[in-house]
Write a structure and sequence with these properties.
The complex is a heterodimer. Chain A has 13 helices and two strands, in the order H-H-E-E-H-H-H-H-H-H-H-H-H-H-H. By secondary structure, chain A is mainly α. Chain A has two domains: 8-61; 82-301, MetI-like fold (Orthogonal Bundle), CATH 1.10.3720. In chain B, 79% of the residues lie in helices and 0% in strands. By secondary structure, chain B is an all-alpha fold. Chain B is globular. The chains are: A mainly alpha, B mainly alpha. At the A-B interface, helix 1, helix 2, helix 4, helix 5 and helix 6 of A face helix 1, helix 2, helix 4, helix 5 and helix 6 of B.
């Protein structure tokens, strides 16, 4: 991917030093940059109208007031909604979202690392087939895949039946945090596998061999050579799994219960029904967006570029 | 056995003491890989199997039948939701592919003032959680429709239009991301060569750039199509009372409780999305060969 970064003017107006008078060159450069902006403009205008403006509206609403009837009063601006972010209930939900997302990330990493390693060390032909087999569930409908776990974990589903057969009669899987973590790992595992695969595949195996030649044990060679060299993949994969898990909405809604409400669900609840509180929901959205942006910046810092 | 050469226990280290533990590790790795594939595919297979189950209780197998598929195709609300989904997906993909590709070209091939800000604007919809985007767009449409009502007296309502507009908003970014990755790997000297050979800008784009980035554009369009058909959260918040997309319908039904009919609809969504990907892979492979 590290091809030469093209100076902008080279593209449309090849720089021929000494052939063009300097004034003309500047003019051509200006024309090219105007053209560049012009080409991108429709997309930018669209995103300003349907993304930046909505974002601004959420920020404005977060300072507004909820009337007794549940409507939002634009006016009487205040910070009360932000003050409520430290309510014990909110903190409990935020904490739950954090550990569910963390747990999901760790489980994904533990499962995906050896898997990616196996994948990356296959012969090229086998590798291509196996990669496609990873990609297919990744591209297939998320809701349907999550729904499949609802069936698998239900009280007359195979898991509970099996456990009953073995002797556990009181097992309840559905509507527990375990079910939510399972669903999230299932949904986002490819996000972990792909960057790990990329970094392991790129690993220079002669370095591992060198370590082994110098009498490192297999474990030592892994810990001191392979792991540090594949760390960028680990970080990228972890962030790619953590971000959507932290903001999860569908999975806890389908596989979770009252005890597994995550931030996403809590925000959603502020916008529907009679108990809705748009200013508070907006403040929560701004807060979660803030956390996400930090996580994403960490991702780009870690060298990840392609999602 | 290229594995042996690459994992460090190559022929040069063929003493038993080194080779044997590696073999155990390999076996564990292979076992883990099989488990992961089982984990990825078994739930899908179970869902497909259960959708052919005649029983009304989801988990109890009685006999094979197409009963639920028959009911699904006769169900007016499900069929209208399916039509809405397809319509929204096609419209949002068409618009976002054009706008996203243009944005990618503008980002990768030009330099101008304010570019970094636009770059950020282009990335944000990718990292923002669905629920935040959903809430933003809900408030936006409510607010915008209030103003329209006040100014023109026309009462607008949320539906196919709002869902499509919302889907374009996030799809632009994903298309741009994919096309940019493709553009970054291209040699821009090819375009310069075309210009040197007296091609007009449009000719250079049409004959050189576009064919070169075509796989990226196709990939971006496919991603947009998939994301649009996949989306539950945003569509749920910006859809109106009457019109929903298929995933929103399924999501609502699942929250009320599972039913075998939903199994069949889920399989429809699943198989549809898988066919889309396999088709795309086949097309891209053919393109590579020619």
């Amino acid at each position: 991917m590290s091809t030469i970064v093209t100076p902008p003017d080279l593209d449309e107006q090849p720089a021929r030093p000494g052939r063009l008078p300097p004034g003309l060159e500047v003019k051509a450069e200006k024309a090219a940059s105007r053209r560049g902006l012009f080409i991108g403009l429709p997309a930018y205008v669209y995103l300003i109208l349907f993304f930046a403006l909505p974002l601004a509206i959420v920020v404005v609403y977060s300072f507004a007031t909820r009337s007794v009837t549940g409507l939002t009063v634009l006016g009487d601006w205040n910070l009360r909604s932000y003050g409520r972010l430290t309510d014990p209930l909110v903190l409990r939900i935020a904490w739950r979202s954090t550990w569910i997302a963390t747990f999901t990330t760790v489980v994904s990493l533990v499962v995906a690392y050896p898997f990616a390693y196996y994948l990356a060390t296959r012969p090229p032909k086998v590798r291509a087939i196996l990669l496609v087999l990873v990609m297919i569930p990744f591209w297939s409908n998320f809701l349907a895949r999550t729904f499949a776990w609802r069936l698998l974990l239900s009280s007359d589903g195979p898991f509970v039946r099996l456990m009953e057969f073995v002797g556990y009669t009181d097992l309840r899987l559905l509507f527990t945090p375990t079910a939510v973590v399972l669903g999230l790992v299932y949904g986002y595992l490819p996000f972990m596998i792909l960057p790990l695969y990329a970094s392991i595949e790129r690993l220079d195996h002669s370095l591992v061999e060198a370590a082994r030649d110098l009498y490192a044990s297999g474990w030592e060679a892994f810990r001191k050579v392979t792991w540090p060299l594949t760390l960028p993949g680990v970080i990228a994969g972890s962030i790619l799994v953590f971000i959507p898990s932290f903001g999860a909405y569908v999975t806890p809604e389908i596989l979770g219960g009252t005890g597994t409400t995550m931030l996403g669900n809590y925000i959603g609840r502020q916008f529907v029904g009679t108990a809705s509180d748009w200013p508070f929901g907006s403040a929560l959205s701004v807060a979660i967006l803030f956390v996400m942006t930090i996580a994403a910046m960490a991702y780009f810092r870690s060298g990840g570029k392609n999602l | 056995m290229s594995l042996v050469d690459t994992t460090g226990a190559g022929p040069s280290l063929a003493e038993d003491s080194v080779a044997r533990p590696r073999r155990t590790v390999d076996r564990i790795l292979a076992g883990n890989a099989w488990l992961v594939f089982a984990f990825l595919y078994l739930p899908i297979l179970v869902l497909i199997a259960l959708s052919f189950n005649d029983n009304t209780r989801v988990g109890v197998w009685t006999e094979f039948s197409f009963r639920w598929y028959g009911e699904m195709f006769g169900h007016t609300r499900i069929m209208s939701a399916l039509r809405t989904s397809i319509l929204v997906a096609l419209m949002s993909t068409a618009v976002s592919t054009v706008l996203g590709t243009a944005a990618a070209l503008s980002m990768e091939r030009f330099r101008y003032r304010g570019q970094r800000a636009f770059d950020g604007l282009l990335y944000l919809p990718v990292i923002i959680p669905d629920i935040t985007m959903a809430v933003m767009l809900l408030l936006f449409f409510v607010q915008a429709f209030d103003i329209v009502l006040l100014v023109t007296g026309v009462g607008l309502s949320r539906g196919v239009g709002t869902i499509t507009l919302a889907h374009i908003a996030f799809n632009i970014s994903f298309v741009a991301l994919v096309v940019r990755a493709r553009l970054a790997g291209l040699d821009s000297r090819l375009e310069e060569a075309a210009a040197d050979l007296y091609a007009s800008r449009w000719q250079a784009f049409r004959r050189v750039t576009l064919p070169l980035i075509a796989p990226g554009v196709a990939g971006g369009a496919l991603l947009a199509l998939t994301l649009s058909l996949d989306d539950v959260v945003i569509a749920e918040f910006v859809s109106g009372a009457g019109t929903t997309t298929l995933p929103v319908y399924v999501f609502g039904a699942v929250r009320r409780g599972v039913s075998p009919l939903i199994n069949a609809v889920s399989v429809l969504m699943l198989v549809g999305s898988i066919l889309l990907v396999v088709g795309a892979l086949a097309i891209s492979r053919r393109r590579v060969e020619t």
